[in-house]
Amino acid sequence: MCGIVGYVGEENAVPYLINGLRKLEYRGYDSSGIVVGKMVNNKPVFELYKKAGKLTQLVGVLPKELAGSWGIGHTRWATHGMVTDTNAHPFLSNDGKIAVVHNGIIENFQTLRSALEKEGVKFASETDSEVIPNLVARFYKGDLLAAVRDALCNVIGTYALAITCVDDPNKIVVAKRGGPLVIGLADGAYYVASDVSAIVGNTSRVIYLEDGDIVEVTPAGLKFPKIENNDYAKRIEEITISAQETEKCGYDTYMEKEINEQPESIERAFAGRFDMEKATAKLSGFEDEIFQRTNKITAICAGSSYYSSLFGASLIEKYARIPSYAEISSEFAFKNPIVGRDDVYIAVSQSGETADTRDAMTEIHEKGGKVFGICNVPSSTIARESDGGAFMHAGVEIAVATTKAFSNTIMIYYLLALKFARQRGMSKEDGAKFIQEILHQPALIRETLKNSKKMKALAKKYSKAKDFLFLGRGLMHPIAMEGALKLKEISYIHAEAFASGEIKHGPIALVNEKTPSVFLVPDDYTRDMVISNIKEIKARKGPVIAIGVEGDKDLESIVDEFVAVPKVENKDFYALPMLVLCQLFAFYMAKELGCDVDQPRNLAKSVTTR
After folding, report:
1. Annotated catalytic residue within 2, 301, 375, 582
2. Measured in Å, how far apart are the chain's first and last C-alpha atoms?
């Protein structure tokens, strides 16, 4: 889940490397580094700089006059080895001639390291990545592409790699197995990155690498050994995002921007996806006839995607009457799952690169099952390997803690519930009403966002709390789980979520006058039971923050703090507005405590390691 950049061309590589790393810092910000190649007295040389800490630490040690016509860079999320200057990328071979940046995990690195040490190689770092430059150096005989290909035949694991050699100037060899990697094509220049967001503004043409690709990049062009006659033109795609989408656009942080973008992003999620005449949803990626006969839908997912899928499974089961489940992808393969011929699986991942979810997909496919995807990145591995699916259309999300991608996943589940329900007995009239509720969601979110000042005041009041409980029933339970996750992700305050009926089965022991509870209280059939749980908390002197519905005076009278969302006709459509208030609360809590909301400690946006 680290970030990789590279440049070969006629201009100075350094500005792109640094700007590219800045745009990829969401992928990891434990340390960063660059290698720049340049000619000195007609002789090619490397200049290496790397530093623990955020990118500003690296920038602070770079010479102002640093320049070179090619180079590679890296921003790290640590897996093997502590966060130190020595463990930062890039890594050089012992002879100083091969430089490498790596995203992924080399599973057999200990075996490789031992063999190389017996050959006299001395390692400076604790990382698995350092074996790669030394392995390439072992095979290098004047042809970098051949050396990389031979070296990788010995490697077991996942990788996205950018490799260069000082004796082979103006050349980078890139390779992919597992980790994302893209090449941008421009006149006289080629760009390498882990994510297209690093390339936006430099070119509009890109090639998304596929697993197994090993590509030589030079100013003269690309060399794909696996493509007959090296005809790679058919793989060139246009970038669909704008440079503005990767900027803060007047906001102080990306997270605040992305929270406030949700009305528009939610609208993109359902735009063009209704058949008004038939009162149903149009999702072409879910047109497979298996949905007509399936008796089991299982979402495989991790983190926030898991919580959204708990919501989605309950929604589909309620409306479409299909038994539906959500499973944590990192645990899925270990249970030796039973995959029935008509079972349907949905892989949910914002990045489309989540390693655990990809592993679960592989397990299902090997057992003959079908996997459909819900992703935000059309070019991602999960999107390409799925049997169908839908894109979230959340737009670029740079803050590490997801907001609008989570909301858009919820919206996709609303659409799926409608589609499957209309196939299985929902009336046209009810389908039309369901569509109207969906269409009303952006306006509902805009109205809810007007509570930002109130959520900021609540955050200031409760910022000294060390623990929080988040509680809800039914569809609000997974929303409470996401609310708790947001708080602990960006403010580092311990928070736990429970189905509110479970509070009396043990968790109530945590309640005291210093532990606030956040309750999600829609005006549906769960309301009276949730109020009963609130009273149990109040009886034990626990402060209660209630997110309820406008006009609920009885609820307001029994809690310490009350924040309302607008009333809706269908009570199953309170999820997104209540979620937005949880996001705002977490955001302002983190700001009050001086935390970095965009780059919280120990986290990275795209989890491409197992």
Report:
1. 2
2. 10
